[in-house]
Amino acid sequence: MRVHHLNCGCMCPFGGALYDGFSRSPLAHLSCHCLLLETDAHGLVLVDTGIGLQDMAHRGRLSGFFRLFNNIQFDRRLSAWQQIVDLGFKPEDVRHIILTHLDFDHAGGISDFPQARVHLLQRELDTAPQRQSWLQRQRFRPQQWGNHSGWRGYAAGGERWFGFDAVRALDDLNDEVLLVPLPGHTLGHAGIAVRQGDGWLLHGSDAWFYREEMRQAERHCTPGLRFYQWMMCSDRDAWRTNQQRLRALSLQTDAQVTLFCSHDRRELGLLDSR
Question: Over the stretch 45-102, which tens digit does the pLDDT of each residue have?
């Protein structure tokens, strides 16, 4: 399986290094880290979709609050659709989309791939559309995905994987791609584990936001991203527990698991350069 690391959206909130830890300008640079998997038997598989073409054409699909708060940059070149074309593929060859969760910056491109089957945890599929609070109505946007057919929700339960419970293999993808429940950021939030050679890639999505929250004994996060995680967290106890377990896994040198999150631009750059 060949893995392509894509940046499917740029969010540039005011605050510079107080968010991303490196920008010298007033604006930070955050990514929307997605994966494109080339499989032999199942076509192309997209892990998260980032900001979609329809989000760019009809900006009202996203809430005004998050458009301004995150200073979202609408650049067609960053869409998953355009990057797939630039890699020499046909967008209709994307047969599966695997979602970590249904936040606007992870699910916006679903409508660009109407033929794809969408896989996610059933709990996310059940809870996100309820949109019971003001914040939930801003983050979960049925305009992005409400008309899509071909959903596959996965119930709780499964095998243990590096200390995590209820890990599920996805239909048709054997044991090469796994859903790893990581509730906290949203109630049905998941990581996506992808087998690569003798090891694994673990896309932790929004279980953490900053590279120094992992791979060291003590968590360090920039003030801007610390606040954003606090604001967006749906279950603080679950989020804290899962982040601690992920940090412990990141320190296991024999585990052969490479962890990364969605919004750290430098982390994406290191993986994309391999």
Answer: 999 999 999 999 999 999 999 999 999 999 999 999 999 999 999 999 999 999 999 9
What is the H or E stretch that residue 56 is in?
Answer: helix 53-57
Torsions phi, psi for 190 (to 5 deg): -140, 155
| Closest among 213, 210, 261 to 20, alpha carbons compared | 210
The residue ranges of the chain whose pLDDT is under 50 are: none
Fold of the 2-272 domain: Metallo-beta-lactamase; Chain A (3.60.15)
Retrieve residue 40's tokens: 């032999």
Of 34, 35, 31, the closest CA to residue 209 belongs to 31
Question: What pTM did the predictor assign?
Answer: 0.96
**Where does residue 231 rank: exposed (0-12), middle (13-18), buried (19+ CB within 10 A)?**
exposed
Tell me the CA distances in angstroms from 197 to 1, 2, 13, 168, one per residue in order: 9, 10, 37, 20
